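User: Some background: our group keeps a shared notebook of sequences we're curious about, and every so often someone picks one and asks for a predicted structure to add to the entry. Today it's my turn. The entry only has the sequence so far, pasted here. Could you supply the structure so I can complete it?
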Amino acid sequence: MESKPKDTILQDYLGHISEEHQVRVQKVKEMKEAGIDAWPKVRYQNAHAADILKNYKEGDEVEYQLVGRVMSIRLHGKAAFIHLQDDSEKIQVYIKQDLIGDVSFRHFEKFVDIGDIVWVRGILFKTQRGEISLKAFGYILQSKCLHPLPEKFHGLSDVEVRYRQRYLDLICNQDSKKLLIQRSQMVQAVREFLTNKEYLEVETPMLHPIAGGAAAKPFVTHHNALGQDFYLRIAPELYLKRLVVGGLDRVFEVNRNFRNEGISTKHNPEFTMLECYTAHQDVDYAMNLIEELVRFVIKKVQLNSVVNFGSYELDFSKSFVRMSLYDAVKSVHNLTDKDLFHEAKIDELLNKYSIKLPKTGMSLEEKIYLLFSETVEKELINPTFITGFPIEVSPLAKRDSNNSGLAARAELFVAGLELANLFDELNDPFDQAERFHGQVAAREAGDVEAHAFDADFILALEHALPPTVGFGIGIDRFVMLLTGTTSIKDVILFPTLKKK
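Assistant: Of course. Here's the predicted structure to add to the notebook entry:
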């Protein structure tokens, strides 16, 4: 069977081949005939645009060598101005036939296009308009771009292109590039904060024989050699706690989790999570630590403490509010203590908001939690820790020592979004086994997100997990909220998309 011509293969994928693409492919053929390599050996640079623009001094005769992408070309007879964009900044380059030679200038006119990556050498000067520019003494094409760059990058018609071809977004949209660089800096700041406090960064398995550590539907895969199904991890929690049993008292992991759930501006099935565990501490310590972590990242990355997020103004400079789940429900729905624990009243509110019960036989506490999650969470705008979750919805958390019906647990909400989940870890193996059995019963009753029975984890607990607190922070949402970005797709380099 004959292979298709390369252009035909690309046409099958794109649906069309632009005229400009065909013109540029022809240029490559002509360059080859002229002995010019369109993708030659690397030429080294000795400076970056941002640095030389910042440090420019009048009369500077230093020869700089830059590499960047051509973002614009203006021809003026025997001279040309281009804007060259490297990974730091954009700089104007002046190319004159007298300085680079007749042949080089003709080749520039004929072969160099917007989008090409070019090496140039020259000295700085100021134009009559006062723009700091590089006067080129020579250039070499480093990589030929075969497609035209988008002229403008805004509007609904471009959104899908931005996500599917993130490289174009980074080339053409400096705000996107800045945001995604900030994300990297924020993750580094998180690591710095925790390592400074003597936490050990670890890596735990991505393939789990049992889906555990959270209530979520997993992705399933199969290991051929073992003849066994595995699950892409929904959380690293149970493995990290095994490490604490082993004597690693302060551990954390920043890595991917996978949940087979819907996609929205707030959810991506593949996401980055920070999970952190501290032996011999409790949930109050974790709330303080998270609050300190947020402020450290804001200062380290030079973000604003007051952030516009959609229609909200978020203030991270003030102490985070702390409120019990029951008090939050009472406040939003104007209930008394008597109302809160009157099941008919809660049922009435669930009906009022058309909230359907996900399963039969729900306890009053589970109904109150359902009412909270459906109607109260969205009202929590500035950073707020909600405490006192019902034990029924906290299968891995220790019971509150003052109220056995509640978990020693908190969640941090900002702009109506859950940002962090934290609790004292259940270290009683008998209690944990009993709760696993309850989760198994729920699974058999149809709850696909209920936890499986993990006998190996129970065995680990039987070797004594010290009193421990753990927390998880969704890094994608963390970046969203601290940068005022309202879509999770904008803070993930390659978000999950439906196949074209």
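Suggested note for the entry: The mean pLDDT is 92. The CA atoms of residues 166 and 493 lie 7 Å apart.
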